[in-house]
Design goal:
By secondary structure, the chain is α+β, with helices and mostly antiparallel strands. Helices cover about 40% and strands about 15% of the residues. It has 18 helices and 22 strands. It has a 5-stranded mixed β-sheet, covered by helices on one side. The chain is globular, with a radius of gyration of 30 Å.
């Protein structure tokens, strides 16, 4: 498509007498660098319309025109389907159909083109979904005025576009702003719950409603796990289908009583109480239209789906399936850039700190191909931003050098504390047990007496993957991220607290800065980890550290702190006992009034996650 509609399309060998036609949804509006001579489009709000017009006569020296249609005529065979999205039938109505004349939007100097299109149809109540009718009506009025004016043949430039935007959207924007001001507390509350607590129900109220759903289908019985009805769709490509299409098929299916116990759609979901590393999606029955609308990955009964690359996709009770399978994703030249290798606890922290300080070259996957890239030091990416933020929002009395030193210290301590939970006896027991298997069967390293952060594991080796799954079913690893945050409290009290007291006497600010590091440690795997509640404390009771934990903490500190510019200002920390009784820990402490500390946490955890991800590639 980008070749056919490229800037130099006249030079391409597509046939000089061939008219190339591209049919697209509104996805074409932005982000695609293509051009055309004539653009036909259905009416939409002015801001969207001008975005679409940007795909016509896009480059210097080109001439083009844009034709806007208020309504369109649909092939009778597809009218019922189209009307699901485009119209609402107005019962007992005798009003005339609105005028369907075409507005012209020249995008460069051109000869006048006069068109007039009218359609005759049953009386309908117009709908401009997914857009608001009032905005589309106002857009149409501006276009009609332009079409009937003396400047209809003139180039539509920036100033005229700006004038049209103001005519159509100014009042709407002011109304939206006023509405936002009136409901600011509710908006901020929803935003806080959605972004910081992961409440999807609140996220729906903040973003545009998703109208499409991903559907899959398969006809082979071997695709399912007979015990758990497990469906592996990870390597398949989905179709993106409007929910209105699926709702119509659902309604037709429910109204037809001849199908007995059959079904047309099932929900694809992650099963509960499964190991997160190996949980494949499972199927569950869709029992209502509202349930269907709430599903985002849907499995279609192959009996009712037909696909042909020339005809397209058909779904419904009147469709006879042709045993179509969802196509596999394109094979990659290399399957996985994260093939884990055994890494000691101390070695992992040292490599992470190296990624903070130094750049390196590695191979990554891009479009399925292995390419060489050079990562800069994470320090170069975030240190200036972190220092400026601390100086501007947290501690304005600091110089920029002091602020940058403090931010680097926070990242250092986040890296140092984020895996303390891996020093649990049970965690090391499970990891060392698997590493011994990997060493004896899969050419893995000998674990000896090391305390481990990662083990040897190749996810593309099916035999090895199956054995690891069986092993972890019998030997469950405890969680480690929130446990790390819990243990970090003692470390930070010894090392960070004295340093912060040199910068400020405000105890509230000191506690909040320390808390940003605790949050980063506890949420480095899950952005919405909540901490330890009363029920967690009652269930888990305590954290027991393994033999040799003191040496691991001391060795990692010694290896890392010498590369910290102000490392001599920090006191060397330790954990004084091997068993810690759990207490409640809240990782949602910051409220909307403390947004500056949430932003500081975001910068620290960003640095932590980048270092964690990249360090694996250094092994």
């Amino acid at each position: 498509m980008k070749d056919v509609f490229a800037q130099n399309w006249r030079d391409n060998d597509f046939g000089s007498n061939t008219c190339q036609v591209l049919i697209s949804t509104q996805v074409i509006e932005a982000g695609i660098n293509i051009t055309c001579e004539v653009l036909h489009t259905q009416l939409s709000p002015m801001n969207s319309l001008l975005q679409r017009a940007g795909r016509c006569a896009r480059f210097a020296g080109e001439i083009g025109e844009v034709l806007i249609y208020r309504s369109i005529e649909v092939n009778p065979e597809n009218r019922d389907l189209a009307e699901t999205d485009l119209f609402e039938i107005e019962e007992n109505s005798s009003s005339d159909t609105p005028s369907d004349s075409v507005a012209l939007l020249p995008t460069a100097e051109r000869k006048p083109v006069n068109k007039d299109i009218r359609i005759t149809a049953e009386p309908k109540k117009e709908s401009f979904l997914p857009y608001k009718k009032e905005i589309c009506e106002l857009t149409w009025q501006v276009l009609v005025t332009h079409t009937n004016s003396n400047c209809v043949n003139s180039h539509v430039g920036f100033r005229l576009e700006e004038e049209w935007i103001n005519l159509v959207h100014c009042d709407e924007d002011l109304l939206t702003l006023k509405h936002r001001e009136n409901s600011e507390m509710e908006f901020e509350s929803n935003f806080h719950d959605a972004v910081l607590k992961g409440d999807e129900s609140k996220a729906i109220a903040l973003i545009r409603k998703v109208d499409n759903r991903s559907i899959f289908t398969w006809t082979e019985s071997s695709f399912f796990d007979d015990d758990d009805e497990i469906l592996d769709i990870q390597k398949l490509l989905p179709f993106s289908v409007p929910i209105s299409t699926l709702c119509k098929a659902w309604r037709d299916f429910k109204e037809n009583i001849s199908f007995g116990n059959s079904w047309i759609f099932k929900r694809i979901e992650t099963p509960k109480n499964k190991s997160q590393s190996y949980s494949q999606p499972a199927l569950s029955a869709i029992t209502s239209r509202d349930f269907l609308i709430g599903c985002y990955r849907i499995f279609v009964n192959p009996r009712y789906i037909y696909y042909d690359e020339h005809i397209g996709l058909k779904i419904g009770v009147d469709t006879q399936g042709n045993r179509f399978n969802s196509p596999p994703k394109q094979d990659k030249s290399i399957n996985n850039q994260y093939c884990y290798r055994m890494d000691t606890y101390v070695g992992h922290l040292v490599l992470m700190w190296k990624c903070w300080r130094e750049g390196f070259e590695t191979n990554i996957l891009r479009n399925g191909e292995s390419i060489k890239v050079k990562y800069p030091a994470v320090r170069d990416e975030l240190l200036i931003a972190g220092g400026k933020f601390i100086q501007t929002k947290i501690l304005p009395n600091l110089s920029i050098d002091e602020a940058e030193e403090l931010f680097e210290t926070l990242v250092f301590l986040a890296i140092f504390t984020h895996d303390l939970g891996k020093l649990q006896s049970k965690w090391q027991q499970v990891m060392r047990g698997w590493q011994k298997i990997s060493h004896s069967k899969y050419t893995g390293k000998n674990p000896r007496k090391y305390l481990l952060a990662h083990t040897d594991y190749n996810p593309e080796d099916k035999v090895q993957k199956a054995e690891l799954k069986a092993y972890e079913n019998k030997n469950k690893r405890p969680n480690h991220a929130v446990e790390s945050a819990f243990l970090a409290q003692a470390i930070l009290k010894q090392s960070l607290l004295p340093l912060l007291r040199k910068y400020t006497s405000d105890t509230g600010t000191i506690k909040d800065i320390i808390y940003t590091v605790i949050m980063a440690a506890g949420r480095h795997h899950s952005a919405w980890a909540e901490g330890f509640k009363t029920t967690d404390v009652a269930k888990l009771r305590q954290i027991e550290l393994c033999e040799g934990y003191e040496k691991a903490i001391a060795d990692s500190w010694r290896c890392m702190v010498r590369f910290l510019p102000n490392g001599d200002l920090l006191s060397m920390p330790s954990l004084s006992k091997n068993i810690y009784s759990l207490k409640e820990l809240d990782l949602n402490k910051f409220d909307r009034d403390e947004v500056e500390f949430l932003q500081l946490y975001a910068l620290v955890v960003r640095a932590l996650r980048l270092c964690d991800q990249r360090s694996v590639q250094l092994l």
